[in-house]
Write a structure and sequence with these properties.
The protein is an alpha+beta fold. The chain has helices spanning 18-22, 48-57; strands at residues 3-8, 27-29, 36-38, 63-67, 81-82. The longest helix has 10 residues, at 48-57.
Length: 84
């Protein structure tokens, strides 16, 4: 199942920059404190492998990938979260 959204918990970020090195198209760091930021929370399909790698390599487990649980337009529960 493909994820549909990237979530970064800034309070967990330890400013290692691993996400930026792995997927610079999706992540950056704030200049003032080095905390990671998400540039696009819905990356293009060709970037999803890099984003998965960035989430797996985050030393603080601050990156979560949210998956769609039900097809669009159907009622359902909250989407499951990878890495939670």
């Amino acid at each position: 199942m493909a994820f549909v959204r990237v979530h970064l918990d800034e309070s967990k970020c330890v400013t290692s920059g691993q996400c930026v090195l792995t997927a610079p198209e999706v992540f950056d760091q704030r200049e003032k404190d080095g905390v990671a930021i998400v540039l696009t929370d819905s990356p293009a399909p060709e970037l999803r492998g890099k984003v998965r790698e960035a989430a797996a390599g985050c030393p603080a487990a601050a990156i979560r990938l949210v998956h769609r649980q039900t097809p669009p337009g159907r009622a359902g529960g909250r989407p499951p979260i990878e890495g939670a």
